[in-house]
Amino acid sequence: MWGILLLGGAAAVTVWWAGLLVLHDEKRRRLPDHLTLPAALGAALGALLTEPALLLGGLGWAGAYLAGGILGRGIGGGDVKLALSLGVVAAAAGGGAGVFAAAATAGAVTAARGVLARGKAVPHGPSMLVGALSVVVFDTWRGALAPAVGLP
Hints:
Blueprint: H1 2-28, H2 33-50, H3 54-71, H4 77-116, H5 125-149
C-alpha cells in the first residue's frame, strides 16, 4: 500500500513540476534554474545510485543541446538542464532509442508549433516534456500489452 501512495505522490509532484515549467516557459520564454537545476541534479544522482548507464541518456541529450546552443541559437541553458533530467527518464523508459525518440519528438512538436504560430518563436521546454512523456507512455503501454500479445 505504501508503494502505491509513494508512486502517486511522486506522480503528483512530477505533474506539478512539469506544469510550472510549461507555464513559466510559455510566459517568459525561459526555464528557470530553480525548476531545472534540482531536477537535473536529482536525475543524475538517482541514475548514479541505481543504474549509472542511464546517465548517458541525460548527458547525450544535454550534450547535443549544449553543442546546438553554442553553434546556433534557440537552445538555452534551461533547455540543456531540462534535457539532462528528461534524458535520464527517457533512457530508463526506452534506452538510447527512447532518448532519441524523445528528442526527435520534441523537435517535431516545436517545429509544428512554429508553423502554427506563423513563424513566431515558440518555447521548446513544453515540447521536451511532451517528447519524454510520449516515450514513458509508450514504454508503459508496451509493457502492459506485451504479455497479452506474446511480445518479449
